[in-house]
UniProtKB/TrEMBL annotation:
<dbReference type="InterPro" id="IPR001486">
    <property type="entry name" value="Hemoglobin_trunc"/>
</dbReference>
<keyword id="KW-0813">Transport</keyword>
<keyword id="KW-0479">Metal-binding</keyword>
<protein>
    <submittedName>
        <fullName>Group 1 truncated hemoglobin</fullName>
    </submittedName>
</protein>
<keyword id="KW-0408">Iron</keyword>
<keyword id="KW-0349">Heme</keyword>
<dbReference type="Pfam" id="PF01152">
    <property type="entry name" value="Bac_globin"/>
</dbReference>
<dbReference type="InterPro" id="IPR012292">
    <property type="entry name" value="Globin/Proto"/>
</dbReference>
<dbReference type="InterPro" id="IPR009050">
    <property type="entry name" value="Globin-like_sf"/>
</dbReference>
């Protein structure tokens, strides 16, 4: 009993502290922003073709998991991702791709300029991240034509992501 209350006393303040910087989902809290699906930075495709080409939400989730893992482990861009909130990144990237591919989601993340602000992303970093996305889509067996259609939607975001 005494031991149990000692454990409680030690555990409680810690828990209170972590609830300040982390939400219940395990994500770090970010600065408030206006939630708006147009923050995704591209209009969704029409129809179900693209969602099917990515094997629905389950396929999109696998692509995002793989894409994020490749970026974090990458020798060239890994440093930029290191220490960032992987849990949030996976969730909102999934939403973004799912929204753009018209697979039945909305996007609740930040706009591309705000999300990549002060990160110092170079064009070469952008190229590397696109290569990692291509690898992730390849591993999922997404056909080449559908891969390129998604990449074409993402291409104009470069202006907001690459720093000057
Ligand atoms: C077309 C290419 C890209 C897309 C579609 C994209 C998409 C996103 C999205 C949706 C988020 C999360 C926004 C939020 O938290 O609300 C994000 C965050 C992030 N992106 Fe990108 N991104 C791209 C390129 C890049 C590149 C080239 C880099 C660096 C090499 C990069 C590094 C990051 C990092 C580190 C975060 C986490 C930021 C944080 O937690 O504060 N991204 N990106």
């Amino acid at each position: 009993m005494l031991f149990a209350s000692l454990v409680l006393m030690l555990a409680l303040p810690q828990e209170r502290e972590s609830s300040v910087s982390q939400s219940a989902s395990g994500e770090e809290v970010v600065e408030p922003y206006k939630v708006d699906p147009t923050n995704a930075g591209a209009q969704p495709f029409a129809g179900a073709d693209m969602a099917q080409a990515f094997h629905g939400q389950e396929g999109i989730r696998r692509v995002v998991e793989q894409f994020v893992s490749l970026n974090f482990a990458d020798r060239r861009v890994g440093e930029i991702f290191m220490n960032q909130d992987k849990v949030r990144l996976k969730r909102v990237l999934f939403e973004q791709f799912c929204y753009i591919l018209n697979a039945g989601c909305t996007y609740t993340g930040r706009d591309m300029r705000a999300a990549h602000k002060d990160m110092g992303v170079q064009q070469s970093d952008m190229n590397r991240v696109v290569e990692n996305l291509q690898s992730a889509m390849q591993m999922e067996g997404v056909l080449f034509n559908a891969q390129n259609r998604l990449l074409a939607k993402l291409a104009p975001m470069r202006r907001k992501i690459v720093g000057r």
